[in-house]
Amino acid sequence: TTLYLEYYTPDRPKESSFFGIHQKTVNNTVSENFYPGDISLKGLDHILEYSKDYFTKKKETKLYEEFRNFHILDKRYLSKEEFKNLKIKYNHSYLYSNYSYNYWENPDFPALPSFITSILNKDLIFIEK
After folding, report:
1. Could you report the per-residue pLDDT of 33-80, keeping only the tens digit for each?
2. By the 8 A CB rule, do 57 and 49 touch?
3. What's the whole-model pTM score?
4. Residue 16: burial class (beta carbons within 10 Å; 0-12, 13-18, 19+)
């Protein structure tokens, strides 16, 4: 079961300005995928989000596209003490990213939704640093 939400679309963009920078969000789409018959937090399998924004400063516009893919690999209940220790340990979790295997290469890893595949194949540009 999939819950598909479009917060902003080209027909309904979101615009804001801050310190001379104008932001226009023309697409923000979220897809939440649940195990069959269990549309609840407990049944959540993965979340996909795509966002497309334009930032303008002094007549120079830059495109910013973001794709986030959040997969739940394991879940269990924690005691209050375990939760407290977890919050302390992973306060800056991006510093500790260390995968034991490349989970995205697993054949059981869910395929990308068609709207994301079409964006990847048509609109995105790969830039190597």
Report:
1. 888 888 888 888 888 999 999 999 988 999 999 988 888 888 878 788
2. no
3. 0.54
4. exposed
